[in-house]
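Hi F.,

I've been meaning to write this up properly since the lab meeting, where we talked about keeping a consistent format for the predictions we share between groups. The idea is simple: the sequence comes first, exactly as it goes in, then the structure tokens exactly as they come out, then a line or two of notes. No screenshots and no reformatting. I'm using this chain as the first example so we have something concrete to point to.
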Amino acid sequence: MANDSLYDVLDFYIEQHSTHRRGSYRVAVRGLTLYLDDIAQAFDIRDLSSSGCSLRAQAALLAVGRIVNGNLHIGNTGYLMGLTIKVIRHIADDSVACVFQALSRRQEIMLDKLLLEIQKRSIATHTARRKRKKH
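Output, unedited:
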């Protein structure tokens, strides 16, 4: 049988052995915060992915290897509750990288839904900008 798959005509390349340290696509968006219960403080999220996030936080507050519990907020509204987060590295004096630990299926679905919505809005914004430039 001939290989007539529609996928054969797609024009893209997926690098199998990337040197990038990120395990999944990240989005940057304003208005997301992570409230950490153990510290009783909210931190702005710099970027977010299905596997983790980076926070605007003083490195001294969150030691590498520390595991904390928290809630993701959109604006002032709790969106994703009961997250367990592990600090994996200090990016700079004012940023830390974290990974999510043992997300429940419900948490995974809610996080994927949020990421998809952010991506859709980003695409719509870029499309609108391109249209304005043409006119």
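Notes:
Helices lie at 105-134.
The longest strand covers residues 77-92.

If this format works for you, I'll send the rest the same way.

G.
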